[in-house]
Amino acid sequence: MSACGVYDLGCHGVYSITLPLQPKVIPNAICGICQKGKEANKRGKPEVLIHCSQCQNSGHPSCLDMSIELVSQIKMYPWQCMECKTCTVCEQPHHEDMMMFCDKCDRGFHTFCVGMDAIPMGCWVCDLCSKDTSTPQKKGSVKTPKKIK
């Protein structure tokens, strides 16, 4: 059931394979933070952009303070930018003040959907990642790219 092509014996005894998502392609995309394309990030170095699965927002991982490990993790599911982020449990974007983000995969969760009263201080890891000790961590808090008009 891994996103790396591991076999999963599903119901009826049929094997299925889960593969990484095909990357979203946005020609001539521009980073919402530094306003530059893949040719140069905020440090002037070439860097591939990541793209929101729900909208046209894009960003350089370095501009979003994402580690290489986190970028490889978000390629395994339909990643959402901060403007599109929904709760992984209830799939709703509402109650932003109660939305927290896993420090290992960047998925969003409402505190009340995971049985918590408040957003915890410091690092928080979701149940999906706490079961997988190989999941990477963020460098720091993720910045929100500016909306492309």
Automatic annotation (TrEMBL):
<dbReference type="InterPro" id="IPR011011">
    <property type="entry name" value="Znf_FYVE_PHD"/>
</dbReference>
<feature type="domain" description="PHD-type">
    <location>
        <begin position="28"/>
        <end position="87"/>
    </location>
</feature>
<keyword id="KW-0863">Zinc-finger</keyword>
<keyword id="KW-0805">Transcription regulation</keyword>
<dbReference type="GO" id="GO:0008270">
    <property type="term" value="F:zinc ion binding"/>
</dbReference>
<feature type="domain" description="PHD-type">
    <location>
        <begin position="84"/>
        <end position="132"/>
    </location>
</feature>
<dbReference type="GO" id="GO:0071564">
    <property type="term" value="C:npBAF complex"/>
</dbReference>
<keyword id="KW-0804">Transcription</keyword>
<dbReference type="InterPro" id="IPR019787">
    <property type="entry name" value="Znf_PHD-finger"/>
</dbReference>
<keyword id="KW-0479">Metal-binding</keyword>
<dbReference type="InterPro" id="IPR001965">
    <property type="entry name" value="Znf_PHD"/>
</dbReference>
<keyword id="KW-0677">Repeat</keyword>
<comment type="similarity">
    <text>Belongs to the SAYP family.</text>
</comment>
<keyword id="KW-0862">Zinc</keyword>
<dbReference type="Pfam" id="PF00628">
    <property type="entry name" value="PHD"/>
</dbReference>
<protein>
    <recommendedName>
        <fullName>PHD finger protein 10</fullName>
    </recommendedName>
</protein>
<dbReference type="GO" id="GO:0007399">
    <property type="term" value="P:nervous system development"/>
</dbReference>
<dbReference type="InterPro" id="IPR013083">
    <property type="entry name" value="Znf_RING/FYVE/PHD"/>
</dbReference>
<dbReference type="InterPro" id="IPR038045">
    <property type="entry name" value="PHF10_PHD_finger_1"/>
</dbReference>
<keyword id="KW-0524">Neurogenesis</keyword>
<dbReference type="InterPro" id="IPR019786">
    <property type="entry name" value="Zinc_finger_PHD-type_CS"/>
</dbReference>
<keyword id="KW-0539">Nucleus</keyword>
